[in-house]
Amino acid sequence: MGDWVNMAEVWRGDILESVHRGRAVVCDSRGEVIAAWGDIDAVTYPRSSCKMLQALPLMESGAAARFALTPEQLALACASHEGAHMHTDRVVKWLGDLELGERDLRCGPQFPRAKEEQEELIRFGQKHDRTHNNCSGKHSGFLTLNKHLGGDAEYVELDHPVQQAILTAFEEMTGETSPGFGIDGCSAPNHACTLRGLATAMARMADPSALGEIRGQAAQDLVSAMKAHPELVAGQGRACTELMDSMDGRTVVKTGAEGVFIAILPERGLGVALKVQDGATRAAETAIAALLVRLGVADPNHPAVIKRLCPKQYNFAGLETGRIAPASALYADGAAI
Amino acid sequence: MGDWVNMAEVWRGDILESVHRGRAVVCDSRGEVIAAWGDIDAVTYPRSSCKMLQALPLMESGAAARFALTPEQLALACASHEGAHMHTDRVVKWLGDLELGERDLRCGPQFPRAKEEQEELIRFGQKHDRTHNNCSGKHSGFLTLNKHLGGDAEYVELDHPVQQAILTAFEEMTGETSPGFGIDGCSAPNHACTLRGLATAMARMADPSALGEIRGQAAQDLVSAMKAHPELVAGQGRACTELMDSMDGRTVVKTGAEGVFIAILPERGLGVALKVQDGATRAAETAIAALLVRLGVADPNHPAVIKRLCPKQYNFAGLETGRIAPASALYADGAAI
Question: Residue B174: is it exposed, middle or buried by C-beta count within 10 angstroms (0-12/13-18/19+)?
Fold first, then answer.
């Protein structure tokens, strides 16, 4: 299938204006490839798509139980949220429960993506802070684990016990030795893996039968929390939230920066991972929607699915100018996988 | 060189995270190809990169002279501005001079890109309007031409005299029969052409010696206006403005949506056009900076050039996470063209 495969087309009128390429793979929990597009053994950064893997040590260590974390908190630990009040209020309370505060977060301050909160900050002349960072829930999870382990305050350092526990879980779930890491948008290390390894890890989240009791329970609890609280995983109108909502809690999806998307399909015991070569979110959303339809878990006629699978494009005057569509190499006639 | 060529690389730490491909060509005013990357005869939409071509009928018809348009207004007619006061104030005055108003613009209302004006609108509970649209200067030019021609109010219709005059000028400058058009973000028709045709048109703007007296003067006046007022062509901190500033008015550059960039090099009589396959602005900026350096008109050590040629990437905490760099297929060792 070549190194990269066409994933999404951007049409303006009758002329193809832009094209996005990518790689994608569907695996089962043994790492067997069910379907693949492009070079799935090339190395990629999972970015935020692997937050549920990064949350495994929080569960397995007993930290989550000790601090009686709720499913809402677990969903936030796996979230790239938009800094709406429903997210930041919960993070502030969580930090308070740990007798910590905003200053203890090691993610930087990020202007929220949520429009209402953006306008509120501007109207009241307030500054955004670290609780608005889309990763503040993940970092609250890191801080919870750190409190349990008794590590020092610099929990995003590579050799810190929190990050070492995450690296171990990440390598065990992907079945690979990570070839390197990068500093993520939130300052935590982000470990690289192959796309096949990432899909395998997601299949193991979907089908934890071979993971042993402790990790198996951890995986199930995290997947259940994400399925139960899609609005906390991203936010109103966002792809992860709306796609999960549309699938009635049957499937978990999670985006990552630079065009990554994963899916966890518990009913089929499968995992999906994809990466758009150029990093475009619009293409990653179209591609994951296409794969979810082909995997039989998303309805191609549901408005939330249409919005990603083949969204019409409008200009500032509201005129329809074109559309985005999955490329035939990926979607063909939507045949089942 | 193949259909598409690597143009820009996005690195995170030591691992290549994303890659952008594209096509680029440098032509002279006879349409001779000086250098090329990828299939330059494929059809593309120039989008906003061709606004100076769309402004030619405004000049050639005598409308600009009749309404005594200033170089500032001509720069705005060729602009994709960010809706700052320096742009909208001039547009409002221009419309008033024509005894027209915001309601006569056929571009839709666009929330301004300029941060200060964004915050001002929110703080004072005001709505953005059509003067904030990045094309409101171009549309003021359309309205000026329309007033001169005595056409009806719907000046963005394909068969309207304003758009027919633009199509004629566009085809004459590109030396091609346009294979079709799309509706642009501002509701005006955007005619497609080859990348070679677009670069040829820009070379003719750079070297108007064979265009005849009227068109030659029109081209010179528009290029001079853009060179004299780079801040009106885009805005503070924007690529077009900063790159033109850095080149001391020796070269005109103009971006277009979906990863298009053009350059007009009067000193060398050359035109440049490039298109990023996936439509990414970050890659188009890196690619045009690379070509401007290779063409000897941009200084690779100037901060405004570095910011596009090889910008370091930082996260929300201010940590350096990686860099964007021109791909070797495009930039190699920066050898002169």
Answer: buried
CB-CB neighbors (< 8 A) of A118 in chain B: 122
Question: Nearest chain A Cα to B11, which residue?
Answer: A182
Beta bridge partners of B189: B183
Q: What is the pLDDT of residue A333?
A: 75
**Per-residue confidence (pLDDT) for residue B332, from 0 to 100:** 85
Q: In Å, what is the CA distance from A51 to each residue of A173, A250, B218?
A: 13, 19, 57
How high is the ipTM of this complex?
0.97
- Selecting from B17, B258, B317 the residue whose C-beta is nearest the C-beta of A187 gives B317
CA-to-CA distance for A195 and A39, rounded, in angstroms?
8
Q: Do B186 and A319 touch (CB under 8 A)?
A: no
Task: Tell me which chain B residues have a C-beta less than 8 angstroms from the C-beta of A39.
Answer: none
- pLDDT at A1 exceeding the cut of 50: no
Structure confidence by residue, pLDDT tens digits, A196-247: 999 999 999 999 999 999 999 999 999 999 999 999 999 999 999 999 999 9
> How far does the CA of residue B138 sit from the closest CA of chain A (Å)?
15
HSE-CB for B156 with a 13 A CA cutoff: 22
> pTM of the entire structure?
0.97
Look over chain A and give the mean of its residue pLDDT values, rounded to a whole number. 97
Task: Count interface pairs A-B at CB distance under 8 A.
Answer: 144
For residue B13, the chain A residues in CB contact (below 8 A) are 180-183
Q: Cα–Cα distances in Å, from A23 out to A29, A171, A276?
A: 19, 21, 7
Residues on chain A touching B109 (C-beta within 8 angstroms): 316
Collapsing DSSP to helix, strand or coil, A183 comes out as: strand
CATH number (domain holding residue B187): 3.40.710
Domains in chain A, number: 1
Q: Is the dihedral of CA B253, A314, B173, B105 positive or negative?
A: negative
Q: What is the helix (H) or strand (E) element at residue B67, kind and residue range?
A: none
Q: Which residue segment(s) compose the domain that A93 sits in? A: 5-334
pLDDT in tens, A111-151: 999 999 999 999 999 999 999 999 999 999 999 999 999 99
| Count of other CB atoms within 10 angstroms of residue B39 | 16
CB atoms A180 and B13 under 8 Å: yes
Please give the sequence-ordered ranges of beta strands (E in DSSP) within chain B, or none if there are none.
5-12, 15-28, 33-37, 43-44, 181-183, 189-191, 193-194, 252-256, 260-265, 270-276, 312-314, 320-326
pLDDT exceeds cutoff 70 at B2 = no
Interface test with B, best of A10, A128, A316, A319 (most B CBs within 10 A): A316
